[in-house]
Amino acid sequence: MPATNTTDTSLVKAATSLVDLLHRKFPGIRIKNIPAYEDEDLTFEITIPQGLPIDQVEQESHLACIKAEDEYDIFIFPRVIYEK
After folding, report:
1. What is the torsional sign of CA 20, 23, 26, 27?
2. What is the CA angle 67-78-82, rounded to 5?
3. The CATH number, out of the four listed (3.40.50, 3.30.1330, 3.30.70, 3.30.300), of the domain defined by the range 3-82
4. CA–CA separation, 8 vs 30, rounded Å?
5. Alpha-carbon span 82 to 64, nearest angstrom
6. Burial of 68 (C-beta count, 10 Å sphere; 0-12/13-18/19+)
7. Which single residue of 6, 21, 41, 48 has CA 20 to 30 Å from 70?
8. Would you place residue 78 in the very low, low, confident or very high pLDDT band (cuts 50, 70, 90)?
9. Residue spans per domain, the chain
10. pLDDT of 39-56, one tens digit each?
C-alpha cells in the first residue's frame, strides 16, 4: 500500500476518533476542519455553546489530540471558540 494511502487512512481514523470522543464529552459542540496554521496534519475549529467553560473544552481537546497523535503519528491542532 502506498504511503499516501496509509497517511490518508490514518488522518481519517484520527479525525473520526477525535470528533466522536469530543461529541460524547461535550454534546452540542460543532467541529469542522479548517486550514492549517503551520505544519499540522489536521486543524479543527471546535465551536462551543456559551454555557460551556472554554478552558475545560480546550484542555480535553488537547488531551484527545495528544492521544490521537500518539496513536496515528500525526499532528493535530484544536482551535476552540464560543459560538456567536
Report:
1. negative
2. 135
3. 3.30.300
4. 23
5. 19
6. buried
7. 48
8. very high
9. 3-82
10. 999 999 999 999 999 999
User: How far is Cα of residue 22 from the mean position of the Cα atoms in its chain?
Assistant: 8
21 touches 64 (CB < 8 A) = yes
Residue 49 has, within 13 A of its CA and on its CB side, a CA count of 7
What residue has cell string 503551520?
Answer: 38
Q: Which helix (H) or strand (E) holds 44?
A: strand 42-48
Looking at the DSSP bridge assignments, the partners of residue 46 are: 31, 80
**CA–CA dist 67, 43 (Å, integer):** 15
φ, ψ dihedrals at 81, nearest 5°: -135, 160
Q: What is the pTM of this model?
A: 0.88
